[in-house]
Amino acid sequence: MTPTLTPHTIARIEDSFRAQGLMRHLGVEMAAIRPAEVTLRLPFHPDLTQQMGYFHAGATTALADSAGGYAALTLFPEGCDVLTTEFKLNLLNPAEGDCLEATGRVVKAGRTLTVCQVDVHAVSGVARAHVATGLQTLICVQGRAPT
Fold this sequence. Notes:
Elements: H1 7-18, H2 21-26, E1 29-34, E2 37-43, H3 57-73, E3 80-91, E4 99-108, E5 113-124, E6 127-142
Antiparallel strand pairs: 1-2, 2-4, 3-6, 4-5, 5-6
């Protein structure tokens, strides 16, 4: 049975996302929130490129990490937050296009540790290129306020 997201859970995830300074700095947008799956979008901007004009791997990686983290958070109980404990990303193709879209999907949810798969696509109009894929392990942190 697929869990459902309450309006309160969606608001909690959106509030957490708005509190992320790096995502705000990069210009990342939350594109979709579903149970155990979140998609984030990063519009192209020249400040996000490396020396050859592609999206920098650092921007791609930050986007992927947050997409997986928020996918896990959709399943975490009220009063809990998420931290990445392990992350592996394979860069498959140069990341060029109008934007990057990263989708995180929960593979295995546990009480303490959750594993997510993350896929990043470069989007140019209707064309999509798979530019990165990875796995991450996240920990459910209970009752910790940001410092």
